[in-house]
Write a structure and sequence with these properties.
It is built from 10 helices and no strands. By secondary structure, the protein is mostly helical. The protein folds into 2 domains: 75 residues, RNA polymerase sigma factor, region 2, helix turn helix motif (Rna Polymerase Sigma Factor, Chain: A), CATH 1.10.1740; 87 residues, Winged helix-like DNA-binding domain superfamily/Winged helix DNA-binding domain (Arc Repressor Mutant, subunit A, Orthogonal Bundle), CATH 1.10.10.10.
Length: 178
């Protein structure tokens, strides 16, 4: 592919997803500057490997996979990886019936409380919440992006929502007058 044509095709397929790429990088790396650097690095990597891109409507998923890999490489390099969390029945167990996390967020939490709660989630949970709730990706697309079964996506999302709910409830209790 001729260089000017490659650049134009790349920009058309990938540039519209810059905001989604930054959003995912920001939530994974937890730092504005690191996220910007990761997006830059990932865009350069995407351009270099653009000849292998199959085209179609998969530009977003393809780019987000590159962003995710770039972020995890950066996390591993800086030894900040927190990809797994020990199983704890109290944390991961089935909770009694309560309002959904989404309803709680809308009814009782402000944006800062939600951001703080998201920051506290382990990376594997935070990324599925960001991809599903903020980037509005389907379970199937998330599963492909993360290279995990759809059931695992659903499980992580359920656990993440339970954890968010607990974090938000605890935050609310701490803020209540005594």
């Amino acid at each position: 592919m001729a260089e000017p044509v490659k650049i134009a095709t790349f920009e058309e397929a990938v540039l519209p997803h810059l905001a989604a790429a930054y959003n995912l990088a920001r939530w994974l790396l937890r730092n504005h500057q690191d996220a910007e650097d990761a997006v830059q690095e990932a865009y350069l990597q995407a351009f270099r490997s653009f000849d292998g891109f199959r085209g179609g409507n998969e530009g977003r998923a393809w780019l987000l996979a590159i962003i995710r890999n770039t972020c995890y490489t950066r996390l591993k390099r800086s030894r900040m990886a927190e990809l797994t969390d020990a199983f704890d029945e109290e944390i991961h167990g089935v909770a009694e019936e309560v309002d959904s996390p989404e309803a709680m967020m809308i009814e009782r939490c402000n944006a800062q409380q939600l951001r703080s709660a998201l920051e506290e989630l382990p990376t594997e949970f935070r990324e599925v919440v960001v991809l599903r709730e903020l980037e509005e990706m389907s379970y199937h697309s998330i599963a492909e992006l993360l290279a995990i079964p759809v059931g695992t996506v659903m499980s992580r999302l359920a656990r993440a929502r339970q954890r968010l709910q607990r974090l938000l409830m605890n935050s609310e209790k701490e803020g209540a007058p005594r």
